[in-house]
């Protein structure tokens, strides 16, 4: 997989853009605007699963002969734990300040959760339930770290690992054990699958895709992933089918990217991929800042017009990307050490 995944950073960056699409209408749920939810409630369920597959793969790639577990732990401390603590704690404070300002200006809350006091207890609670709700994925990546040592020794015997993997799948599909309270169903099964591929050095097949093939493949991928996104993981065999779809998506995206390296899209991904983590971390806050202000300033009254709603969503999506890249570029230029610390690099 990795030998033919030299575009892994571009693929991860592309998936994060799709994460933004999942987030672009979250603020509309909190408004009382009338709009066609069947058209605009878009959700791609495969984003975190694809990231989990890649994470599991990279952690165990080429570890058959030696497994530098403590070295990997040290690396993950800098790339996961430090950024997690920074973003969770700093935005706990930022949201308290912004909420107070918002109430003073608009005389209403209109936020995900009620206002909280700035206390040590609330700060610790925020580490468990991050204000930036998409950080559940990083939380799962951190929580799995102690278990990776155990996973490594299971991987040494593929039949034992297969039995363990099927047991985990069954726990989610048939509700045998409440694993969901510890690891999300959109994380653990996919991560374990990635671990197997990485340990056994499975490589992504390379299949050239023409422009006509890309034109046909992209709408099919969108339709398949959207159609399966609302399937319940605790109903057999939906989770198992969704895992196959996630692998199909990664296979298709890799070959689309690999076959179109001269395209503007590839050049964009290659140029801005260093901002990948920063975009993932800050996008929900920027959506909140941009969309809530616009909604309270009057945009809410026009959301029943489909054309205006598309303009609102796409415009805020582009604004979030531009703002995130602008802030990241400034931090990288004037405080590179700080930028690399908070993005885990």
UniProtKB/TrEMBL annotation:
Source organism of the structure: Puia dinghuensis
Entry keywords, A to Z: Membrane, Transmembrane, Transmembrane helix
Domain Acyltransferase: 8-322
The protein, known as: Polysaccharide biosynthesis protein
GO molecular function, one term: acyltransferase activity, transferring groups other than amino-acyl groups
Coiled-coil parts of chain: none
Transmembrane segments: 12-30, 42-60, 81-98, 135-154, 159-177, 183-200, 212-231, 237-257, 277-295, 307-331
Keyword Protein biosynthesis in annotation: no
InterPro entries registered for this protein in UniProt: Acyl_transf_3_dom
């Amino acid at each position: 997989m990795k030998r033919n995944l030299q575009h892994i950073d571009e693929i991860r960056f592309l998936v994060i853009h799709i994460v933004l699409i999942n987030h672009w209408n979250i603020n509309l749920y909190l408004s009382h605007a009338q709009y066609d939810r069947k058209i605009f409630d878009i959700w791609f369920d495969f984003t975190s699963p694809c990231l989990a597959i890649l994470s599991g793969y990279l952690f165990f790639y080429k570890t058959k002969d030696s497994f530098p577990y403590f070295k990997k732990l040290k690396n993950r401390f800098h790339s996961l734990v430090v950024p997690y603590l920074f973003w969770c704690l700093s935005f706990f404070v930022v949201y308290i300040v912004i909420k107070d300002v918002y109430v003073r200006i608009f005389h209403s809350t209109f936020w995900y959760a009620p206002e909280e006091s700035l206390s040590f207890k609330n700060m610790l609670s925020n580490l468990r339930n991050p204000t930036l709700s998409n950080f559940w994925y990083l939380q799962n990546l951190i929580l799995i770290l102690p278990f990776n040592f155990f996973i490594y020794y299971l991987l040494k015997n593929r039949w034992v690992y297969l039995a363990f993997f099927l047991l985990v799948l069954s726990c989610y599909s048939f509700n045998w054990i409440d694993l969901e309270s510890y690891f999300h169903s959109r994380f653990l099964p996919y991560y374990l699958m990635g671990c197997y591929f990485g340990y056994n050095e499975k490589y992504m097949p390379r299949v050239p895709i023409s422009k006509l093939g890309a034109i046909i493949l992209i709408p099919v991928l969108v339709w398949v992933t959207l159609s399966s996104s609302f399937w319940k993981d605790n109903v057999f065999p939906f989770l198992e089918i969704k895992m196959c779809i996630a692998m199909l998506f990664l296979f298709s995206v890799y070959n689309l990217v690999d076959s179109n390296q001269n395209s503007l899209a590839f050049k964009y991904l290659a140029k801005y991929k260093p901002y990948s983590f920063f975009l993932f971390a800050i996008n929900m806050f920027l959506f909140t800042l941009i969309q809530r202000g616009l909604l309270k300033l009057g945009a809410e009254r026009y959301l029943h017009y489909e054309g205006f709603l598309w303009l609102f969503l796409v415009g805020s999506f582009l604004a979030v990307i531009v703002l995130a890249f602008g802030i990241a570029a400034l931090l990288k230029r004037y405080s590179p050490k700080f930028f690399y610390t908070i993005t885990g690099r």
